[in-house]
Amino acid sequence: MDGSLILFNILNPPVLFFFLGMCAVFCKSDLEIPHPLPKLFSLYLLIAIGFKGGYELSESGLNTQIILTLVAAVIMASIVPIYSYFILRYRLDNYNAAAIAAAYGSISAVTFITASSFLEKLHITYGGHMVAALALMESPAIVVGLILVRLFAPKKEGDGAVSWGKVLQEAFLNGSVFLLVGSLLIGILTGEKGWEKLQPFTQGIFYGALTFFLLDMGLVAAKRIRELGKTGSFLIGFSVISPVVNALVGISVAKVLGFTEGNALLFAVLSASASYIAVPAAMRMTVPEANPSLYVSMALALTFPFNIVIGIPLYLEIIHRLGIGA
């Protein structure tokens, strides 16, 4: 692999601030981010990326390639948790296997945003419809994970019927998905005029907000690393190997469907990332038997930093070698 791509990615200021946050925890600094601010910056990032995607989609319009990409995104988000579940079942019970599989079938919006900023620094273009793919991939894994629990978990006396209404509401109407899809639709409806009005807000302070958000993510990830010691080598290995396998599947799909270089990387990153916000929220409500310290720690403290440091440049190198988008 081209080491200069890894170095280029690491020397990205937002990524360096992520490690600064981790160092603060390891050095026992009293650095803290006031609680409402990370939430505010995460909302801003979702608005900015959704609005930009909507604007670019309004410029390009719908075509066969875009429709195929969106269909592939939904299928990918449904298949990954299925094969992940059966791998995890070798060491885990049904509940934990399903919860972790759902987390790895879903996506991380922050990893996607970091990958898109990486592409922009390299002057590699990508389609606005990839934001729509991001929104579509967040929810199916939650539904598949719950179906796996219902199919394979042993029935307990007094088990009631699953409230599918609440499950679907959490899967498709959770705050992150709702805001992302809403921003995407507003970007489509307002087009170029809306883009000109909001560009100073959605683009001008984008990297500053991303930097602040990743600083907080570094603090949170470092605190979670201590819990990984309880998960054992199998789950630590899964946290690193699974993203690479999922990315290779995603890159294969991109090759078959004729994606551009930038779209192929974002699809690979979406396939490789794991959810540490939406899925844990849904699993805590619907699968309380699963241990959150497993699936949150794996996704946040290992898979997330692996993807933003090594995964993104590694996947781009593979895409280059396969000649995708050339």
Question: Mind sketching the topology for me?
Answer:
Elements: H1 3-10, H2 13-26, H3 36-60, H4 64-88, H5 94-105, H6 109-121, H7 129-137, H8 140-152, H9 164-173, H10 175-202, H11 206-228, H12 232-257, H13 261-272, H14 278-286, H15 292-322
Helix pairs in contact: 1-15, 2-11, 3-7, 3-10, 3-11, 4-5, 4-7, 4-8, 4-12, 5-8, 5-15, 6-13, 6-15, 7-10, 7-13, 11-15, 12-13, 12-15, 13-15
Spatial gap, N to C terminus: 18 Å
Structure annotation, total helices? 15
Mean of residue pLDDT? Answer: 84
By DSSP, the count of extended strands is: 0
Helical content, roughly? over 70%
**Percentage of β-strand residues:** under 5%
Give the low-confidence spans: none
Radius of gyration: 19 Å
Structural category is: mainly alpha
Morphology? globular
Q: Quick gist of this model?
A:
The protein is built from 15 helices and no strands.
